[in-house]
Amino acid sequence: MNKIYNPKRADWKDVLKRPTQTVADIERLVNGIFEEVRSNGDGTLKKYTEQFDKVVLENMLVSEAEIEAAKSLVSNDLKEAIKLAKSNIEVFHNAQKTDRVEVETAAGVTCWQEKRPIQKVGLYIPGGTAPLFSTILMLAVPATIAGCKEIVLCSPPDKEGKLNPAILYAANLCGVTKIVKVGGIQAIAGMTFGTETIPQVYKIFGPGNQYVTVAKQIATKYGVAIDMPAGPSELLVVADDSANAAFVASDLLSQAEHGVDSQVILVSTSKSMIDAVEKEVAQQLEELPRKEIAKQAIANSKLIYVENDQEALDLINEYGPEHYIVCVENEDFYIENTYNAGSVFIGNYTPESAGDYASGTNHTLPTNGYAKQYSGVNLDSFLKSMTFQKINEQGIQNIGKAIELMAEAEGLQAHKNAVTLRLNSLK
Amino acid sequence: MNKIYNPKRADWKDVLKRPTQTVADIERLVNGIFEEVRSNGDGTLKKYTEQFDKVVLENMLVSEAEIEAAKSLVSNDLKEAIKLAKSNIEVFHNAQKTDRVEVETAAGVTCWQEKRPIQKVGLYIPGGTAPLFSTILMLAVPATIAGCKEIVLCSPPDKEGKLNPAILYAANLCGVTKIVKVGGIQAIAGMTFGTETIPQVYKIFGPGNQYVTVAKQIATKYGVAIDMPAGPSELLVVADDSANAAFVASDLLSQAEHGVDSQVILVSTSKSMIDAVEKEVAQQLEELPRKEIAKQAIANSKLIYVENDQEALDLINEYGPEHYIVCVENEDFYIENTYNAGSVFIGNYTPESAGDYASGTNHTLPTNGYAKQYSGVNLDSFLKSMTFQKINEQGIQNIGKAIELMAEAEGLQAHKNAVTLRLNSLK
Fold first, then answer.
1. Model-wide pTM > 0.90
2. Chain B residue with minimal CA distance to A20?
3. Residue A193 sits in the same domain as residue A271
4. ipTM of model
5. What SUPFAM superfamilies does the record point to (chains A, B) (predicted)?
C-alpha cells in the first residue's frame, strides 16, 4: 500500500488520480454490433450469444417454467435473506415518494409539478462467476414502486443456456416483467432499438464490464437515457483513533475484492491508525478466496495521512468517493460538510457491505468522481418530473404585461402576440 | 401545413418523425477546439472569439463597472417585468425543496437521503439577435435556491465586445457569481477544463446552436454533466371545439418563430377546428417580423385529425412533446393520462409564452422525445441526493446474517467478512 504523508494541495490531483481506460477500440466494436442489432434484431443477438457466451439459444425469453424451477433451487436461507433485504429497500425507497408540488405563483396562475414513471426501463445484470442478484433488488424494487410499466431484465446465459437461479428468483420477486437471456453489447443494443424478443426501453440501468459501459454510453446517442456513467468501484474511509483497525481493514478489502482496478483509500489524522490498518490488511488478505484480485487493488491503494480534519475534509470533497465510511469521533463535522460522496457509512458497526445488500439504501452509486454532480440510483431515477400550469382570465391579466415586455425585448413577436390576443379578448 | 386524417398506428413513427441532424463534421471541429482549450486556456478562447465573434478582447471577465452601466441601460418597465418573472420562478422552485428522508429500516439501522448542491455549475446563454435573458432567470434562480457555490455564465460578446445589458442585468439580479464574455464551442470547453478566467464546473446548463449542443455532448466524455440532450424546440396542441382557433394559431406561431426546424403539431378530434386554425395561422403569419422563419417551420408542421380522445392520447404519449397545450372540454382525461410531456399548458388562457417567461415554471425542457425519460430543469437539477446510514450494535445483529448469506452467494467473501468480524466482536 502507498503511504502518503501530508500531500500538498497542488499534488492532490495526482494523489487522487483514478485509473483511466482507453475506449476507442471498444467504441468501434460497439458501433458495429449496434448497427447489426438495429438491422437484424434477434438474429444478431443469438449470433453474438453463440460467439461470446458459447451457447446456441432457441428461445432467449425466460419462461414461467424456468422461473418456477429456479424457486426450488434457491436455499430457504438465501430466500429469507433476499426477502429481508427487499423489505428494507422497499421501506427506504417508498419513503422517497414526493407529493405533487402546487403553488399559485400569482392570482389566477396555478403551477404544479408532478412525477410520473418512465414507462419502459431496462435492467442489465452481468453474468460471470458471481450472480449479482443484489443489483436486481436495487433496480427492480424502485422501478416497481415508481410504477414503471415495463421492466425488462437482460443477463448473459451460462454455457448451458441458463441464468443463475438466484437471479431468476430475485427478478420474479421484485416485479421484473420480462427476463431475456442475452448479455454484453448485444443486450444493450437490443434494449436500445428493440428486437422481436426485447422491447425498446427509454432508460437503461445497471453495471457491467467496460464493453457494457461503452455500449451504454453509445446508447445515449440513440435517445436512450442511462442511470449514470460508470467507472471502477471505490471506497474512501476516514478514520481516527476511535476506529477499529480490523474493521477498517475488512472494509477496504471488501472493496478491493471487486476488481484489480478497484479504488481503496484511507484518510487519517492518525499515523498509528494508518500503520495498524496496513498490518490488518496484510493479515486478512491471506484468508480471502479472491486474494489475487484484492492484492492487486490493494497494491494501488493509498493510505493518506493529513494534519487535521479540515484538510481531510477538503481532500475528500476533492475526490468525491462513491462509498465513504466515516469512523471518527468528530463525525458530525464530516457528515455535515462532505458535499461530494455517493453513500456515507457512519460509525464502527456500519460496514459498506450493509449498504451493498440489505440496509435499504441503494448500491448503484456514482463512481469516478461523479458524486460531484450525480445522485446514486433512487426512486426519482425511475420517474421524471413534469410541470403543469393553468391560467385563468384574471391570471393572464396579472402576468400578461410582463410576458409581452420580455418577449418583445427578446425579439419574439409571436410569443408576445399569443398574450396580446388573449388580453384583447378580455377588454 | 400538412393535414393528416386518421393516421394508422403503424405509420405513427413516420408521422411524428422529427428532423435529424448529422453531427460527424461538427464533432471533429469540437474535438479540435476542446484539445486546444485544454492545453492553452484563455489564449485559445480569445483566438476563437476573434475568429467567430469578430472581436479582440483584452479581458473576458465582465467587470462590476460593466454591470453597473448595464443597469441604467435597461428600461424600468423591462426591469419590473423581469423582477415579476423572477419572483414567480422563485416561488415555484422554492416550493420544490424537499426535506431529508429518514427511516429506521430495521431496529438499529437508520438510513437517510439528503440533497446537497452541486458546488460549481456553468450556464450557457447564446448570443445573436435575441438576448435570451429569460433563460438566465430559468437557470440562475434555481441554482441560487439550491445553494450552488459557483455559478458561472458564459455568453458570446457582440462586435463591440459587449454583452446585451438585459443579460448583465438579469445575471446580476439572479446571483450569477462570474460572467465571462465567451461563446460557442470554446465556452463549453472552457467550463469543462477550466482556464485562467473560467472556473472548471461540474455541470453545464443552457441552450445553444448545434455547435454548442455537440460541445455539451463531448463535455460529458470529460466527466462534466449536462442538463439534458438538446433538439429543436417543439409544441403539440390538442384542441377540440371548445378551443379558440385564433389563440391556438397564435401558440403554434409562437413556437414556429423560434427556428425553421421548430416542430409544431395540432391534434384534434374536430375537423372544423383544424380548418379554422389553419386559416388563422395563415392570417396571423403575415403580421410577424420573423415571418420567414415561421413560414418554413409551419410548412413542415402537422394538423392531425383523430377519431377520439384515446387515439389522440396514445399518439401524444408516443410523441412526448416538449411543450403541450391542452384546450379540450375533457381536459382531465388528458392531464391524468399523459405520461410523456415536458410542460403542460391547460385551457384557453394559458399560452406557452406564459411558461416561457413569467408564470414560474421552467422553460428548459426535454425536446426530441426525451420527455419519455428526462425531466425539465427543476430545483433537483442543481442538487444531488446522497444517502447516509448509521448502524448500531443491535442493527448489525439484525441484518448481519442476511448480508453474510447474500455476500457468500455472490462469491464475495471479503464483503461477508466485514460483517462477520463485527458480529464476532459482539459475541
1. yes
2. B222
3. no
4. 0.95
5. ALDH-like
